[in-house]
């Protein structure tokens, strides 16, 4: 990396970088911390698009008030839940704006979500067709099944969501032998040898002293964070952290301060202020300072700047809680997550958390770290003490897939899937950028957000893609900023070259139809790349 020219840009004139799509500022300023280029793309929203998007929401809001007026006078039927007249003096059950947004904006494009499927959510799936006769308030099954829809929405990163193969066979055998449920907690009658085997294997996979598994990924965060910090502690949370991290922080009764997404200057300022000023009013030192961050951010496709975070953590004697829900299995040469991706020591991360719902295609979550930390959680975590034990078929799915990734099954299938995912990710992102779409996130992230901006185009994009047998996920306000609605593609190792090319052709076609190619930074098309079942290679020319 060429450091010197960008050091001045980072420290002296940040406005210079505002319109630049490829932001390598932090990598260049802290080049000694990185062993590889760190390239992320966040192209600024074009001004005209921002204005038109605000106008779209404004028009929808005006018509929403008009329709509410018509509903008030019984001109139009109201399907939504509302407060009774006799309860008007009670504490309201429904938030006014949320209710207004749901019935007047979300309902118009509700058909783009909640579509039932009737097959394994692998590289393709079968979709149950639904229709609505009351403007998306209710849906009816038509009896038709849409076959072989290319799946660009599921978190099936390594392709283990399948009903054939080693994982499915092993899970089926365990189901016959042990049944589905355990009907007890780990501390009572629900601790089986398979659970302990999984924890030992997970600790070995992560490179930590000990690990503990939980039956629900969301509860792994929301129930364990309150066990680690409490009153008198400070939590520094990334502004784009997942809802489970936010809930866990709130339940802990700790003081919470939020820093800008992946912004090390913002994080360091909060750390410095916390050390200098201490707790409010008393100015006593904080009992603990815990940094909450994710490995891959599922809405932005960005990757944590882990080398810089660890450097700050050590400098200010803070603790780091790393959520690797999307990065475990999907990053690193051996699928060991963002720590391996940057070539760092797992011991530098105090609490390593992740889920089994993405790359392992199962359910539940884990926490890894020092043995004394895990022993403490076994007796203090609500999720460990009160929750039912993880189902044995789910445990077997995780065990089999993890052994495959680690090569303990005697094959190289796991490594080939990791390599395939990395190749598919780079190929898919590069092709979208060449077409002229605005793509967010890191070049190595299998989460690929494509910006749509306008609410009408959010619904139209999902419908047009489904007409062409491509299943996608759209994300809009309030899950994203109001002017940053997007389609979120999740790339899988199960996708073949033909599937990706078919999907890319359809995306380009729909992009032309809806005028979605907004990028002002044109990427020159690369030379044709020969492709086989394992590699993408550039011609020597």
TrEMBL record:
Pathway: Sphingolipid metabolism; Lipid metabolism; sphingolipid metabolism. It is found in: Endoplasmic reticulum membrane. It is a single-pass membrane protein. CDD domains: KBL_like. Gene3D superfamilies: Aspartate Aminotransferase, domain 1 (3.90.1150.10), Type I PLP-dependent aspartate aminotransferase-like (Major domain) (3.40.640.10). Belongs to the class-II pyridoxal-phosphate-dependent aminotransferase family. This is serine C-palmitoyltransferase. It comes from Sinocyclocheilus grahami (Dianchi golden-line fish).
């Amino acid at each position: 990396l060429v450091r010197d020219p960008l050091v001045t840009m980072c420290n002296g004139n940040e406005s210079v970088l505002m319109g630049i799509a490829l932001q390598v500022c932090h990598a260049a300023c802290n080049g000694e911390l990185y062993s590889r280029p760190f390239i992320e793309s966040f192209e600024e929203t074009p001004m005209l698009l921002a204005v038109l998007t605000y106008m779209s929401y404004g028009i929808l809001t005006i018509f929403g008030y008009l329709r509410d007026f018509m509903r008030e006078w019984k001109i139009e039927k109201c399907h939504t839940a509302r407060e009774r007249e006799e309860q008007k003096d009670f504490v309201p059950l429904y938030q006014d704006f949320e209710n207004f947004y749901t019935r007047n904006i979300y309902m118009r494009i509700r058909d783009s979500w909640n579509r039932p499927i009737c097959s394994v959510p692998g590289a393709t799936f079968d979709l149950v067709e639904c229709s609505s006769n009351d403007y998306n308030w209710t849906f009816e099954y038509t009896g038709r099944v849409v076959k072989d829809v290319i799946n660009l929405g599921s978190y099936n990163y390594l392709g283990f969501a399948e009903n054939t193969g080693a994982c499915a066979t092993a899970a089926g055998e365990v189901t016959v032998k042990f049944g589905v449920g355990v009907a007890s907690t780990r501390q009572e009658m629900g601790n089986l040898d398979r659970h302990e085997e999984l924890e030992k294997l997970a600790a070995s996979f992560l490179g930590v002293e000990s690990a503990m598994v939980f039956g629900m990924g969301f509860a792994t965060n929301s129930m364990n964070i309150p066990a680690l910090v409490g009153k008198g502690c400070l939590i520094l949370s990334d502004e784009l952290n997942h809802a489970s991290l936010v809930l866990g922080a709130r339940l802990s009764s700790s003081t919470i301060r939020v820093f800008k997404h992946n912004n090390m200057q913002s994080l360091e300022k909060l750390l410095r202020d916390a050390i200098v000023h201490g707790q409010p009013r008393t100015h006593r030192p904080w009992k603990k300072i815990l940094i909450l961050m994710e490995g891959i951010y599922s809405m932005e496709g960005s990757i944590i700047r882990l080398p810089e975070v660890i450097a700050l953590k050590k400098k200010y004697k803070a603790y780091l809680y790393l959520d690797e829900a999307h990065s475990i299995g999907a990053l690193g040469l051996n699928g060991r997550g963002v720590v391996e991706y940057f070539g760092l020591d797992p011991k530098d991360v105090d609490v390593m958390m992740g889920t089994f719902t993405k790359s392992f295609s199962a359910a539940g979550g884990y926490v890894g770290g020092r043995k004394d930390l895990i022993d403490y959680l076994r007796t203090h975590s609500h999720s460990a003490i009160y929750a039912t034990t993880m189902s044995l078929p789910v445990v077997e799915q995780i065990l089999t897939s993890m052994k495959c990734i680690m090569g303990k099954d005697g094959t190289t299938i796991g490594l080939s899937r990791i390599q395939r995912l990395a190749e598919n990710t780079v190929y898919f992102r590069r092709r979208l950028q060449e077409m002229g779409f605005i793509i967010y996130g890191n070049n190595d992230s299998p989460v690929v957000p494509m910006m749509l901006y306008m609410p009408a185009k959010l619904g139209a994009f999902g419908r047009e893609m489904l007409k062409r047998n491509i299943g996608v996920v759209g994300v809009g306000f309030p899950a994203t900023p109001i002017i940053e609605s997007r389609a979120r593609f999740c790339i899988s190792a199960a996708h073949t070259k033909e599937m990706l090319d078919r999907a890319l052709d359809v995306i380009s076609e729909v992009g032309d139809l809806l005028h979605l190619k907004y990028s002002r930074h044109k990427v020159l098309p690369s030379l044709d790349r020969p492709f086989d079942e394992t590699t993408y290679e550039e011609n020597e020319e």
